[in-house]
Amino acid sequence: MDKRTVDVAIIGAGTAGMGAYRAARRYTDNLVIIEGGAYGTTCARVGCMPSKLLIAAADAAHGMDRAEVFGVTAGKVSVDGRAVMARVRRERDRFVGFVLDAVEDFPAAHRVRGQVRFLDSQRLLVDERLEIQAERVVIATGSRPHIPDALTGAGDRLIVNDDIFEWDDLPASVAVFGPGAIGLELGQALSRLGVRVRMFGVGGAVGPIRDPAVRDCALQAFNEEFPLDPDAKVNQIRRTAKGVEITFEDREQGERSETFDYVLAATGRRPNVDSLDLHKADLPLDERGAPRFDRYTMRCGDRPVFIAGDANNELPLLHEAADEGRIAGTNAGKYPEVRAGLRRTPLGVVFTDPQMATVGLSLEEVDARCRGCFAVGEVSFEDQGRSRVIGKNKGLLRVYGEQGSGLFLGAEMFGPAAEHIGHLLAWAAQQRMTVSEMLDMPFYHPVIEEGVRTALRALNHNLNIGPELVERCLDCGPGA
Questions:
Q1: What is the pLDDT of residues 194-208, one digit of tens each?
Q2: Domain 149-267 top-level CATH class
Q3: Comparing C-alpha atoms, which of 478, 444, 453 is closest to residue 377?
Q4: 88 phi and psi, to 5 degrees?
Q5: pLDDT per residue over 62-113, tens digit each?
Q6: Is 347-476 assigned to CATH 3.30.390.30?
Q7: How far is Cα 33 from Cα 14, in angstroms, rounded to an integer?
Q8: Distance in angstroms (rounded) separating the CA atoms of residues 370 and 3
Q9: Which CATH architecture has domain 2-144+270-334?
Q10: Of 121, 188, 254, 404, which has fewest CB within 10 angstroms of its CB?
């Protein structure tokens, strides 16, 4: 068996792993990055990029369907499923190519292929052929779709999001299980491209939204496009000659059955740590067998082992994975000097239409922090000027602030341009701005961001800082 000694070994060449590699390499050139699967990040291959390509096609079709609102007609809209999927795969492969180019730039001596497991906290075995003695280790093995046993009755028609992007054509129907970010994005996109969609959830959640008022607004909007039951009772799922028959309880009609071409399991993801033999690494593990870690240093217990990205199952978002990889790689490279890295204000976006955004603390977290001493401001986009002009006047924004200090703490939004408004609010939260300071910023007219001002004014009044709201304030312009 071959043996090799390195300063740092990084397991996984995804977003977090490559970030860790680049950071660690600033301090040592004696390192390896080990990958057991195909090169190319989750984001590029099966995540954010291909899903947004599908959503872009759906948005184009939906825009044509709704053009009549503006007095514009273009005849019956026709969707060429094969052309849609060909573009998705073509552009997806282009994005993956960028990642492959980046990996190819790493020195060949630094790249190791194979499946890894721990022999102890500083020894790794790759494919039973190479033993690596590593002074420090970074776990960045990513995650994979989680499939509940209850869905296995769908047989060969059970798919995950990875499978969609290999389709040559669009099917006639899909049942989506899991109204989280992945399920909502793909389910709505397929629906707008002419696929019959029904969505099932458990527990009542709708995407990442935790604020009940915003959640109810989103649920109503989605149900105008396709049936979505966030707390469904499904009695049976079985493969038939015609597809997959699902028997469920309809809230109005009682028990009924529908048959679909496919069942999409969008039921969360699980970290790829179960094959690493972590018990041999002497790491503190939680009840699911995943390493416990410090989210500011990414270190696992008191061992020279760090974990980053989806593998730690905390914030499965690309920008968080990149930050965590950088922190883990820096601390692995500089070990035994270990320092806290920058953790940014939480920001999440779901690319449905309307979009969703979560910023800073959730309503529950605000309540826990402030012990009830907080206030909420909100704005509906039903009558917001710019939103009505462009025909995207659905949604609700709720903003949270601390009594006494007037500090802006967080927000949840379902509405137009949430991807942009979420960034503005996240920047304000990270700068620890008060609501009054945010209101001192410029607001142009007519823009959707004027809705943010309305919500902040309501919040400042409810914090007993600002004046009472003036209904339809014409100083701000009509419909502001």
A1: 999 999 999 999 999
A2: alpha beta
A3: 453
A4: -55, -50
A5: 999 999 999 998 788 899 999 999 999 999 989 988 888 888 899 999 999 9
A6: yes
A7: 10
A8: 55
A9: 3-Layer(bba) Sandwich (3.50)
A10: 254
